[in-house]
Design brief:
Elements (H helix, E strand, L loop, with lengths): L5 H13 L2 H8 L3 H15 L4 E4 L2 E4 L1 H28 L4 E7 L1 H5 L1 H12 L3 E7 L2 H10 L4 E6 L12 E8 L1 E6 L9 E3 L7 E5 L18 E6 L2 H9 L5 E4 L10 E7 L6 E7 L5 H17 L7
Parallel strand pairs: 3-4, 3-5, 8-12, 9-10
Antiparallel strand pairs: 1-2, 5-13, 6-13, 7-11, 7-12
GO molecular function: DNA binding; DNA-binding transcription factor activity
InterPro entries: HTH-type_LysR_regulators (IPR050950), LysR_HTH_N (IPR000847), LysR_subst-bd (IPR005119), WH-like_DNA-bd_sf (IPR036388), WH_DNA-bd_sf (IPR036390)
Family: Belongs to the LysR transcriptional regulatory family.
Length: 305
Amino acid sequence: MAEFTLTGFRVVHQVATAGSFTRAAEMLGYTQSGVSRQVAAMEAAAGAPIFDRTRRGVALTPAGQVLVRRATEVLAGVAATELELAGLRDRLAGRLTIGAYPTAAMALVPRAMAQVTSGHPGLAVLLEEAATPALLRRLRMGRLDMAVIGVGHGLPDYDLSDLRQTTVLQGDLLVVVPDTHRFAGHAGVTVPDLAQEHWIAGDGAAGEPQFGAWPTLSDPHIAHTARSWSTRLSLVAAGLGITVIPDLALPALPTGVRAVAVTDTYWPRRATVTVTRPHPSAQTQAMVAALQNQAARLQEPPADS
């Protein structure tokens, strides 16, 4: 007696999704005759046709609709089983929710997430981007396992006394200019060099770093303000002004702009830190280590071409 098989469910589901035997075969890496044999075996088990062949492809019969619905459930169950079994082999299996301020979420945090999850497929990492005050509230409420925030000169003195802190990096600020700008080919500039520039300023949430004009520049000319990094950098690329960016965001720079160092002895570095509750889990500690690793990579000098 013919029986339903996992391979058969997978093939039927793919044919229904693709709309044809030919496309399903290409997506599965099978021959078309192999797909036809699997469908025939499933039709034998069902005791009824699964597909009607039409000039435009295939259409599901009533029996086919039942099989595809059940195939979806079966394949989801198999995927869940594989994930649970991976969890038994992985001491970090579980769920980790990390919050980050927008600049850290541009490159640093996604790279650390990828590092951790590539080695631990049983760990699901979720990211929430928000302003620092909101992140700290969520952390204390238990909605987050950890938060990545900025601290230092020009930022609020957050109360972190009940939380565990780990420094991820000490960062520099740079100016971002269009690649046609007079500074684009310079290794660095000074604060007086910036005096006559038009600036694209940030309009972020209260308590967040407000990047825009150089912070020690007196009476800068603000040409435009924008909340998002993508808008600010697009304005720069269009030649409408220049802006300030922290070095940890350099990997996210779009084409059409250049980052230039600024010599300024009066501007101290800011720090990016992780904050957790006093006794972080193994998953949280692994993410902190990944953040430190990726921060070190971000600050490595570019390789000689």
